[in-house]
Amino acid sequence: MAGVKKLLRWVEESSALDKAAGALAEVIPPALRRHRVTDLLRGRPLGHPAHPAVVLLPIGMFAASTVLDLLPGEGRAARALIGLGLASAPAAIATGLAEYTTLDERQRRTAFVHLAANAAATACYLTSFRLRGHGFGVVARAVSVVGLTAVGAGGLLGGHLSYAQGAGVGREPVEPEPAVEPL
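The line above is the sequence of DUF2231 domain-containing protein; the predicted structure tokens follow.
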């Protein structure tokens, strides 16, 4: 466990990530940072970040597909779950990028590696999905296991970002919309 803590600390302190992490922040247009859509993606109406809730779909679908891969004859169901995970991944990416605009330098380093791990996982599951469609079941299942490993690494980094680094914590309370009085 000490090795994991050391690795997480190295990620958040690694200035070698600054160039790439900063470039990603610059790609997200400043005008979008104060836009209603971004407020929605950041979960402002909820009063907390939307990203942790939205990522449950692709994570759950990908993990469940890997469990089904352990059962004989469940390849079609596993492929369907991967398809659902891939279909829900853009929402997870969008909510994560909306949060990215709010992060400080140390948090951005962690978030950048978090994004890279999850991008690798998504690429693995996309590859597995395509391989399954062409009859390469054994290879597809192996690629899914690699993808699940990347999902785990991404989740570890996301948890560190939220719980240890406080990303998305301490937001201003969201005022409820005023009630409309009857005429």
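Note on the example: Helices lie at 2-13, 18-27, 36-42, 51-54, 56-69, 75-100, 105-133, 137-164. The CA atoms of residues 54 and 118 lie 14 Å apart.
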